[in-house]
Amino acid sequence: MNSSVTTLNCSQQEWELRVKLAQCYHLVDFFGWTETIFNHISARLPGEHAYYLVNPFGLNYSEVTPENLLKVDHTGNKVEPSAYDGNPAGFALHSAIHTAREDICCLIHTHTTPISAIVQKKQAFKYDSFYGAQLYGRIGYHAFEGITLFQDEKERMIQSLGDKHILVLRNHGIAVGESSIEKAFFLLWTVQRAAEIQCQADAMGGEDVPLADDIKEKCADLTAMLIRESGFATKFFDAMVRKMQSEK
């Protein structure tokens, strides 16, 4: 995908966002985090309108391209013609968070096996692994209300998220949101690694070595600072794109 060439009648800024979002979809597919044609990744477009880009429902993540991404408003209505429709289950979640949190420009929703297993547990995420510690104090929890189709759940999801960037959807999955696609992807990768390690450690039995709260807080704060104030997430994202493309 060439970020300098667009076949759409859109700004260069929008085209570059489309290219990066399509790459994010391909990365989630590359790492095996998809749920067939379900789940969603959205990116808010800059400008005065509350428009964002999201995947066409029915396509595999590997089939998402910059051109076929849907442009929708905060209610999920298409604002430009497309042969595809969106997934209505995504609009309640994504539109709620994009509308309420101006600092979140990209939102990724997954329910991989390790994540879904952990959020089904009463304790949910632990914070005693290297990656788990980086999530300390950064997660909001939302009780399961069924498939997220209904408008009346929006406000409760926003309240559950608060000022956090990770929303655990109990008995379901997670949503992670950040100020850019690169940052959101890195946060998702961190959550996924924490989940994988926690599942493996719990399966082994025996006692974990606990971390003190001040150490966990230090790890979480440092990671948040690195993502916020450096090009760390962009370097990671670009490296993963290169790795994916080299293995095709």
Automatic annotation (TrEMBL):
Domain of life: Bacteria
SMART domains linked: Aldolase_II
GO MF assignments: actin filament binding
Gene Ontology BP term (one): monosaccharide metabolic process
InterPro entries, A to Z: Aldolase-II_Adducin_sf, Aldolase_II/adducin_N, Aldolase_II/adducin_N_sf
One Pfam family in the UniProt entry: Aldolase_II
A GO term from the CC aspect: cytoskeleton
Gene3D superfamilies per record: Class II aldolase/adducin N-terminal domain
Domain Class II aldolase/adducin N-terminal: 19-199
Assigned protein family: Belongs to the aldolase class II family.
NCBIfam families reported for this sequence: PRK07044.1
Protein name: Class II aldolase
